[in-house]
Amino acid sequence: MYDFSYHKPSSVADAVKLLAADPDAKAISGGHTLLPALKHRLNKPTSLVDLSGIAEMKGIKREGNAIIIGALTRHVEVANSDVVKGAIPALAYLASHIGDNQVRNRGTIGGSVSNNDPAADYPSAVLGLGATIHTSKRKIAADDFFLGMFTTAMEADEILVAVEFPIPEKAGYAKMKNPASRYVMAGAFIAKTASGVRVAINGAGPCVFRQTAMEAALAGNWSAAAIAGIKQDADGLNSDIHGSAEYRAHLVGVMAKRALAAAG
After folding, report:
1. What pLDDT was estimated at residue 227?
2. What pLDDT, in 10s, does the model give residues 25-70?
3. What's the DSSP call for residue 131?
4. How many CB atoms lie within 10 A of CB 74?
């Protein structure tokens, strides 16, 4: 690990100032991605901006027909929240199956979404529910937020503050996880929302994406039969020692059916 300065601001405004003043500074919350990179000397920030002391970035609340979750809210808090369970059970279920106990007690929703790991769980819920990302500067629609592997629409001095999830009529999530790492090999988050059916696929490709053919089919017939004949194209999907692109393409269909069954 290389030397770096350490800062722990108490407000979003102070954190933004620290990041803006130093282009080589890094923000950190749960640290599940950044800390291992630092230990292996794969990242060399001049300073770390610890967001954990910012109270305004924590908590879960319902406002109208939406659930707003602060970026520093930990996975275990989402999983155990009566507010989330009552409004979006699929989101609570997703959070309860992230990693293991240690990960769920340290990892944060903001860290997961802003890091945009292809095998992360939360991006599928954000895209599948058509959520809105609240940052220190603006609001970004889910469809505009995820740009590619580990890449989002946020700027270097911009901080993810909260995620606003509209409450769907129905929603379900299913994933095939690597038995060792528990990272998603292929997952599907399906929701029937006020604006239509949304199907988000995570783990299978370099970035979470919408399966529009399944969305169109389910809009006309909300049943497993509607998507039974839809095959995911393997072109561009991830392929590694854990599973080929063709295997992941097959898993997309399997997980979509399971997510649909979970949604009811």
Report:
1. 98
2. 999 988 877 888 889 898 899 999 999 999 999 999 999 999 999 9
3. -
4. 20
Q: How far is CA 245 from CA 44, 135, 182, 184, 242, in A?
A: 33, 34, 18, 14, 10
Q: How far is CA 28 from CA 9, 42, 75, 162, in A?
A: 11, 15, 16, 15
Is the CB of residue 88 less than 8 Å from the CB of residue 171?
yes
How much is the pTM?
A: 0.95
209 Cβ contact partners less than 8 Å away, ≥ 6 residues apart: 127, 200, 201
Residue whose structure tokens are 């606003």: 164
Residue 135 lies in a domain: no
Domain extent for 242: 170-263
How far from 29 is each of 39, 42, 50, 188, 238, CA to CA, in Å? Answer: 16, 18, 6, 26, 28
The count of domains in the chain is 2
Return the residue matching tokens 């505009």.
144
Number of Cβ within 10 Å of residue 241's Cβ equals 5
DSSP 157-210: T--EEEEEEEPPSEEEEEEEE-TTT--EEEEEEEEEETTEEEEEEESSSSS-EE
> 39 Cβ partners below 8 Å, 6+ apart?
1
The CATH number of the domain where 238 resides is what? 3.30.390.50
